[in-house]
């Protein structure tokens, strides 16, 4: 009997997970004449002042500061800023290695981004084409192609809706009807137990918990050389929020590669056992 092909999904945060720091800090913030510290300090101050969502405020800050500095904010400008983002070690060929390993186990691995960062910047990175969908904050552009308003703001709680979109196969952001329709568990394209969520911090905790509590696997990553970073992710394990903590080094043979391959092995074994249970 031919083995059934199984689909699994790996969803990643971006900033601090696949790349060090925040993507705005590489080129955009210096371009508008600010230091990283001042940009985020002012963002925090405005968030408190207006009792507002931090993501919406930082997006407004980007547009306001760009206008004041006479910096262009067309879509292609944001994409260009993304080209300067530095990725963690091993990320560029990570997807090929994981996809190949999945195929060897009759598993199709789909990759997704769920990030509070800027979608257009992520699209400028060399790994953009590796993702089936990129869910991240983005802008609406006017008739002159200039960013004027948030099209989507992804914060720590709204991140979870995209896991359900992946689970149900409803990938369009605008479709809020199908994603809320009842769909039997055995008809969902990517069951939660076939999901991995990879993130780095507090804004990822709702996703960590959702995936873990639905029998999927959550991985917290930490900067390999940052003092005290591992202790923070170990705390997430102790609190039952994640399954694993790994250094954000995606090189061949790394801790996260070993962990993800082990999860792939488990998904393959679970699928084989389910198939045996269905044989008359």
UniProtKB/TrEMBL annotation:
Source organism, top-level taxon: Bacteria
Keywords recorded for this protein, A-Z: Hydrolase
One Pfam match: HAD
Molecular function terms, GO-annotated: hydrolase activity
InterPro entries membership: HAD-like_sf (IPR036412), HAD_sf (IPR023214)
Entry-linked SUPFAM superfamilies: HAD-like
Protein name: Haloacid dehalogenase-like hydrolase
Species name: Geovibrio thiophilus
Species lineage: Bacteria, Pseudomonadati, Deferribacterota, Deferribacteres, Deferribacterales
